[in-house]
Prior knowledge:
This protein is an alpha/beta fold.
Amino acid sequence: MTNENPMKGAVPLTFYEPQKTPRYANNVPALDSYGRRIDYLRVSLTDRCNMRCVYCMPAVGMQFAPRPELLTNDELLLAIRAAAAAGFRKLRLTGGEPMLRHGIVDLVRELKAVPGIEHIAMTTNALRLRKLAEPLKAAGLDRVNISIDSLDAQKFRAMTRGGNLDEVWAGIEAANAAGLTPIKLNAVVVRGMNDDEVIRLAELTIERDWEFRFIEVMPLTGVAGLADEGVVTSAELVAKLETHFGGLESLGHAASDPARTYRIPGARGKIGFISSVSDPFCATCNRMRLTADGRLHLCLLRDNEVDLRSAIRSGASQSEIEQIIRHAVYLKPWGHGLPEGIKPTLRGMSQLGG
Ligand code: SAM
Ligand code: SF4
């Protein structure tokens, strides 16, 4: 590796100084400074998308990263091999829309072959899933989360600024048929837009063995005004669903799963609530993000980043990159600062992948 600081350009600046920074032990899982084991990497494959959801991107003024700024497949694979050596075991491919990434099927195959990577999931808007579900499953994709905010075609089109609901349904059925299961469906609940649909959306779990997850809208840059009408909290939704269905059966939640899950009595599937704003799950956070332009983003709702791309492009070896990843894990902040009024300003959700 050159002497150049590989974290130069990270925002806010966090300096990795090989001479001053302790070397992290290899062959042990990476722990952050609070003792949390971080083994789940959410990988954004592109910041581009074929939809423009109101809660994710502004209507105008989106600027996308020029292609040379994105990690190439070889660079990404090097980063993932180093992450796996640092103890990362699960990947989630996201974006933007991950299925817009050229050569996605081959990329999934190569990622799944990385020693140490045990599980690969994808979060997608499903517009390309009808065609890609089977090849992706054959390439090693384990399962998918699919965004579907409304069951009304017109409202869906409005919320996604152009999305075709029929195509999303076809994608969901294709994922089911291909065995990309258990399928989880996501809706971001926005007051005055789809909060009147939560009963219908929850009802999908009665007949189908799906998990339907309601997500609180997060005030990321470009869409922060959406929360001005008040975030529709999970507590508010539980109360609404219980008024309609009677008491929901609480199923609890796995420590590393942000969703608290419930079941409508007698239903085949589950309902999940992701309460990042009203009831954050920072204490059990096990995740970090890699942006499409090669930054490790340490907490979804903070701006702290560590630059991997310049290290990769300056010829760093896999074990040097592993050290940078271990250091980034160590620097992971405890949690977000929304309760203190600190909002992230650096990137929008489409650049982070949720
Ligand atoms: N395009 C894919 C999709 O929509 O599923 C993957 C990327 S999208 C950024 C990942 C997740 O972030 C989706 O479930 C989406 O609903 C969620 N999301 C986007 N903006 C959000 C916001 N402001 N607050 C909460 N969740 C958001
Ligand atoms: Fe695209 Fe997903 Fe953002 Fe919607 S939520 S604009 S589908 S990246």
